[in-house]
Amino acid sequence: MEKTFILKNEKGMHIRPAGVFVKAAAAFKSNIEIKYKNKIVNGKSVMILMSLGAKKSDEITLIANGEDETEAMETLGKLIEDGFGEA
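Request: output the structure for the sequence above.
Response:
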């Protein structure tokens, strides 16, 4: 399952939102990935998420596959939509 979001927080995917996202993603058994431009990366790695260089207003796609993918998509999608608490 996948869904596209627009980053709303001022600094994009820097260390704090990447950490918040990874901590939440780690709670799920599903495989979590982020697609940005032509890259698909592990959504459970802070360093990899930061290396994308995604900025405010950039489009990212959240991909969740596994037994708890629906719950993962809801929880992680809300984090993105809420700007990781920064927007």
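The chain is about 35% helix and 25% strand.
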